[in-house]
């Protein structure tokens, strides 16, 4: 699946997007954040406060317990500040 | 033209917008519209007494349009609107420059006022845009405000 990062999450991770293949035990958005955080210090820094992080699956906002099965694109970003 | 016609225009662009022109496009040759409310968001020159040199706006292409569309659709289902236009700019802005435009058209003003406020409140908290401020002391991402969440929460359907 494709993962995208925005704003300071993107800056901390060090890339705007990537394709990942998490193990089958990674079932939810929350699981994915924990799994990514274990991959490197950059991810751990980006996700150091997981409750602050917002997520979207296929362009729709989701909660942290949302299942990621079948997702084409998952995005992680800080609370929005447009308008 | 039937009264129920409600064209929805959503654009994300770097270029500036012309409010008068957008209103003219929205109202066109129609005679069923009695009220147009226009909201423009403008780059401020200071934040909590700190001077802002510039503001950069980043967005999530694809999702930003879809999210605004979802809110525009909700607005048209909640209020008898005759037209909605939302234009959000992205890029780097100087104080005084336009950032966002929301137009709502209806037969009567109350509906147009409410729908414009609803759209802006949701746009601020749910549309994937992020602002970064540049000031004399450096650059930093703008933090989301609790008051914006509260403003959006009052529109939640009970």
Secondary-structure blueprint:
The complex is a heterodimer of chains A (83) and B (158).
Chain A: E1 2-5, H1 7-13, E2 17-19, H2 29-37, H3 41-46, E3 54-57, E4 60-62, E5 73-77
Parallel strand pairs in A: 1-5
Antiparallel strand pairs in A: 1-2, 3-4, 3-5
Chain B: E1 8-13, H1 19-27, E2 35-42, E3 46-47, E4 50-59, H2 63-78, E5 81-89, E6 91-93, E7 98-106, H3 109-126, E8 129-135, E9 138-141, H4 146-153
Parallel strand pairs in B: 1-5
Antiparallel strand pairs in B: 2-7, 3-4, 4-6, 4-8, 5-7, 8-9
If you had to describe this structure to a student in words, what would you say it looks like?
- The complex is a heterodimer of chains A (83) and B (158).
- By secondary structure, chain A is of the alpha+beta class.
- Helices cover 27% and strands 23% of the residues of chain A.
- Chain A has one domain: Roll (Ubiquitin-like (UB roll)).
- A five-stranded mixed sheet of chain A has the order 2-1-5-3-4.
- In chain A, strand 3 and strand 4 form a beta hairpin.
- The N and C termini of chain A lie far apart (30 Å).
- Chain B is α+β, with helices and mostly antiparallel strands.
- Helices cover 32% and strands 37% of the residues of chain B.
- Chain B contains four helices and nine strands.
- In chain B, strands 3, 4, 6, 8 and 9 form a five-stranded antiparallel sheet that branches. In chain B, strands 1-5-7-2 form a four-stranded mixed sheet, sandwiched between helices.
- In chain B, a hairpin with a 2-residue loop joins strand 8 and strand 9.
- In chain B, helix 2 packs antiparallel against helix 3 and helix 3 crosses helix 4.
- The mean pLDDT of chain B is 93.
- Chains A and B meet through loops of A and strand 4, helix 2, helix 3 and strand 8 of B.
């Amino acid at each position: 699946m494709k993962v995208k990062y925005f704003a300071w999450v993107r800056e901390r991770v060090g890339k705007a997007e990537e394709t990942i293949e998490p193990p089958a035990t990674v079932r939810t958005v929350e699981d994915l954040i924990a799994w990514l955080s274990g991959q490197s210090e950059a991810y751990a820094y980006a996700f150091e406060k997981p409750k602050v992080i917002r997520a979207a699956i296929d362009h729709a906002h989701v909660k942290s317990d949302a299942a990621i099965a079948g997702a084409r694109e998952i995005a992680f970003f800080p609370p929005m500040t447009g308008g | 033209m039937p009264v129920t016609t409600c064209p929805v225009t959503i654009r994300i662009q770097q270029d500036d917008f012309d409010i008068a022109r957008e209103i003219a496009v929205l109202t066109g040759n129609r005679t069923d519209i009695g009220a147009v409310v226009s909201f423009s968001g403008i780059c401020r020159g200071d934040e909590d007494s700190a001077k802002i040199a510039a503001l950069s706006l980043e967005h999530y292409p694809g999702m930003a349009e879809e999210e605004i569309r979802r809110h525009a659709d909700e607005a048209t289902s909640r209020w008898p609107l005759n037209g909605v236009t939302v234009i959000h700019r992205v890029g780097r802005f100087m104080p005084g420059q336009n950032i966002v435009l929301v137009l709502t058209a209806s037969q009567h003003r109350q509906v147009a006022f409410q729908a414009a406020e609803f759209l802006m409140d949701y746009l601020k908290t749910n549309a994937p845009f992020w602002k970064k401020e540049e000031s004399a002391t450096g650059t930093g991402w703008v933090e989301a405000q609790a008051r914006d969440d509260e403003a959006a929460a009052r529109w939640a359907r009970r």
